[in-house]
Amino acid sequence: MTKKKQRADYDSPWKQILEAYFPQAIKFFFPNTAATIDWNVPYEFLDKEFQAISRSAKQGKRYADKLVKVRLLSGKDTWLLIHIEIQAEKEDEFELRMFTYNFRILDLYKQSAISLAILCDSNKNWNPDTFSFIHNDTVQYFKFGTVKLLKYQRRWKQLEASDNIFANVVMAHLKTQETLKKPGKRKEWKFALIRRLYEQGLDEQDIRNLYTFIDWVMILPKELENEFWEDFKQFEQEQSMPYITTGERIGYDRGKQEGLVEGELSVVLRQLQKRLGQLSLPVRAQIESLTLAQLEALSEALLDFTGTDDLSQWLQQNQS
């Protein structure tokens, strides 16, 4: 039996860090666009507007999308659509979706939008940036800004030298990918990246925010997580900067666990519905009562299900 990989709810930390450091993200990834924005004027996240354009989007993938209203140096207001592709795999219709989102904004709100994408996948050959259609008298061409985090592997020294806070985010993401099957190495890098925040002289709130991101994405087995936490507590004591207290850690762990369960439950329910059709309310209630470990086991077992009897039998055998 192959060892099951621990899954992570990566979209939540990306959404949080992007909202906390939006200007830094645009300046880091898209400096040409950032140079046209008047950062002295407050920007506005348009969550309701984004929900309107994305409500019929394909489900089952991980995204961290933001629609933001900014003021250009020219004095004109414009909308910025930031899409972060979290799931580490190629998506065949990605270019079409980027075009569709952009068009929906124009169609619904008569507002042109700048479309930008941050790709977190590990496929070095996938670099989407254009949607086009050509047929006789009709030509359609849409190009959007794209940055590929994988390419920063060759620019590690540049990341270390950067004073942009988002360099820490990219470093954590790259080391998360790199240590996927190396938990011991991940523990070392997790500690090194968090220690680096203190060495950079960041203020307490920035350290807390980046600690939360790194800790969430760089998930460790329980034993190594406990070792890491003990090492980290000792480090904070030596630095005389106890920013993350034991009480906060306990509360955060509980919140993170709840987030992981919610994310895994959503994925499993969609997989089951696609494979078996609409689930009855009693069956759905049984699935919603499963633990994270049980949901992860079900997500693998359901690949062999041929009917609802297989699901019922699995629930009978595995539900506590």
Please give a quick description of this structure.
By secondary structure, the protein is of the alpha/beta class.
Structural account:
This protein is α/β, with parallel strands linked by helices. It has 3 domains: 11-152, no CATH class; 179-241, no CATH class; 254-307, no CATH class. Helix content is 54%, strand content 12%. A 5-stranded mixed β-sheet has the order 1-2-3-4-7, sandwiched between helices. It has a two-stranded antiparallel ribbon with strand order 5-6. Helix 4 packs across helix 5. The radius of gyration is 22 Å and the shape is globular. The chain starts with 10 loop residues before the first helix and ends with a helix. The model is unreliable at 1-8 (pLDDT under 50).
Biggest β-sheet, characterized? Answer: 5 strands, mixed
How would you sum up the global shape?
A: globular
Measured as a percent range, the helix fraction is 40-55%
| Unreliable segments of 5+ consecutive residues | 1-8
State which percent range the strand residues make up: 5-15%
User: Helix-strand pattern, N to C?
Assistant: HHHEHEEHEEEEHHHHHHHHH
**Mean pLDDT over the residues:** 84
> What structural class do you assign from the helix and strand content?
alpha/beta
Please give the order of strands in the largest beta sheet: 1-2-3-4-7
Tally of individual domains: 3
Distance N to C terminus: 22 Å
Number of strands: 7
Alpha-carbon Rg, integer:
22 Å
Helical stretch count? Answer: 14
